[in-house]
Design goal:
The complex is a heterodimer of chains A (245) and B (207). Chain A folds into 2 domains: 107 residues, Roll (Ubiquitin-like (UB roll)), CATH 3.10.20.30; 118 residues, Alpha-helical ferredoxin (Fumarate Reductase Iron-sulfur Protein, Chain B, domain 2), CATH 1.10.1060.10. Helices cover 34% and strands 12% of the residues of chain A. Chain A is built from 8 helices and 7 strands, in the order ββαβββββααααααα. In chain A, the strands form 2 sheets. In chain A, strands 2-1-5-3-4 form a 5-stranded mixed sheet. A two-stranded antiparallel ribbon of chain A has the order 6-7. Chain A starts with a strand and ends with a helix. By secondary structure, chain B is an all-alpha fold. Classes of the chains: A alpha+beta (245), B mainly alpha (207). At the A-B interface, helix 8 of A face helix 3 and helix 7 of B.
Chain lengths: 245, 207
């Protein structure tokens, strides 16, 4: 496959950036999107140019490190992470636009790398259970209803990649925060800190400069893990419930 | 946004049902309009109920507008740099919430000037809403403005009702589908109900 890429190049956080055009040839349809970028980077390095910086780690769709906006869609045209997007979903001769996540709360570090530590601070403000650590407790010590376990697991699938923020026209982090709050709040282990967790995590989310939710549903459409949009409603219910406590 | 929106939605349902009395003739509609002024008597004085409702609705409109403005400001700040590759996002109803809301606000001003203060009404006879309605909808602009506004209203309600349920925490994975069907049904019923009056005048059912 021969492709024309228009990739966002930005030398540093305060440097001006621009879409730069590259030609790549000899791309096989079995390559992942990141392998295609690796190929381009090898050529750039051989030519003495700066390679394109992008985040990646596990390359099997479970770590949430990679992520870029491909042709205006977070993680590209398939409902998966960028590392699991394969070049067979593009056609020979295509022009592909590649941009970093765009949000005030996710400043660009370099090229396609953004600083997602705002997510870490949201987690740090309540996305955990205060419990003594040590060996794992006996599995039957705390019974969990099947329905609660399913709901918690559905929301626990979030890998924190940030596609929801990138896809949201408002740059809102509601789906991410909802995933974490619902995951812990429906479980008996998370119940004691239920109210303080939601209040503190929502406050941090607001302080980080994310936008407000207008329920456009773009986040859930882009989410590679299929976190349901109704999770945001459950977050709102937890927030209303926790506000008076 | 959600609470003020629900207040206005409840009002719209009663307003639409009241409007349908136009199909029972001038006596029914004008009688209904006169009754609205005597609701609550003798606890309330003549016309007080109407003024209480007007104050509550004005408050709801103002709260809705201010909240929309604040939310929009915040949302624009959260994405200072736009994507170079723009793509059509969400449904038409969702994308048109902001401008649709502005259109509806302008329509409310026109609607009050037309049928409450009668400033721009071609008939303009206080206490005879039936005749005023027929006169207004008999002009091309009166009927046209109303029809466009009601289509905008339907789109606004389609996203707004579900969105309000979502904001107030009424949604969950099992209820999502039902709520979306309810939003579509409510939007359709309100639009058809409101549109039936100008259409009735235009095709001569209401004279």
């Amino acid at each position: 496959m021969n492709l024309t890429l228009r990739i966002w190049r930005q030398a540093g956080p305060d440097a001006p950036g621009a879409l730069t055009r590259y030609q790549v040839s000899g791309i096989s349809p079995e390559m992942s999107f990141l392998e295609m970028l690796d190929t381009l980077n090898e050529e750039l390095i051989l030519a003495g140019d700066q390679p394109i910086a992008f985040d990646h780690d596990c390359r099997e769709g479970i770590c949430g490190a990679c992520g870029m906006v491909i042709n205006g869609q977070a993680h590209g045209p398939e409902r998966t992470t960028t590392c699991q997007l394969h070049m067979r979903h593009f056609r020979d001769g295509d022009t592909i636009d590649v941009e970093p996540w765009r949000a005030a709360a996710f400043p660009v570090v370099k090229d396609l790398v953004v600083d997602r530590s705002a997510f870490d601070r949201i987690i740090g403000s309540g996305g955990y259970i205060t419990a003594p650590t040590g060996s794992a407790p006996e599995a039957h010590a705390t019974p969990v209803p099947k329905e609660a376990a399913d709901l918690a697991f559905e929301h626990a699938e979030c890998i924190g990649c940030g596609a929801c923020v990138a896809a949201c026209p408002n740059g809102s982090a509601m789906l991410f925060t909802a995933a974490k709050v619902v995951h812990l709040n429906v479980l008996p282990q998370g119940a004691p800190e239920r109210s303080s967790r939601v209040r503190s995590m929502v406050a941090t989310m607001d302080d980080e400069g994310f936008g407000g939710c207008t329920n456009t549903g773009e986040c859930a459409t882009a989410c590679p893990k299929g976190i349901p949009l109704s999770g945001i409603s459950m977050l709102n219910r937890e927030f209303l419930r926790g506000a008076g406590r | 946004m959600a609470v003020s929106g629900v207040v206005m939605l409840l009002y719209l349902v009663f307003h639409m049902l009241g409007n349908l009395k136009v199909f029972f003739g001038p006596g029914d509609l004008n009688g209904y309009a006169a009754w609205l002024r005597t609701v609550g008597e003798p606890f309330l004085r003549y016309g007080w109920f109407l003024w209480i409702a007007r104050c509550a609705l004005t408050a709801a409109v103002v709260v809705h507008g201010v909240a929309a403005y604040q939310l929009s400001r915040r949302d624009l700040r959260a994405r200072p740099q736009k994507y170079a590759h723009q793509r059509q996002r969400a449904t038409y109803a969702t994308r048109t919430m902001r401008w649709g809301g502005v259109i509806l606000a302008l329509f409310i001003v026109w609607h009050i000037l037309d049928l409450t203060t009668l400033t721009v009404n071609p008939h303009a006879e206080p206490g005879h809403p039936y005749q005023n309605i027929v006169a207004s909808f008999s002009t091309w602009y009166g009927g046209g403005i109303y029809c466009v506004a009601m289509l905008a209203l339907g789109l606004h309600v389609r996203h707004g009702f579900w969105s309000a349920a979502q904001t107030l925490g009424a949604n969950n994975p099992r209820r999502d589908r039902t709520l979306k069907v309810c939003a579509n049904a409510l939007a359709l019923v309100l639009t058809v109900g409101f549109l039936s009056v100008p259409v009735g005048v235009m095709i001569g059912v209401v004279r």
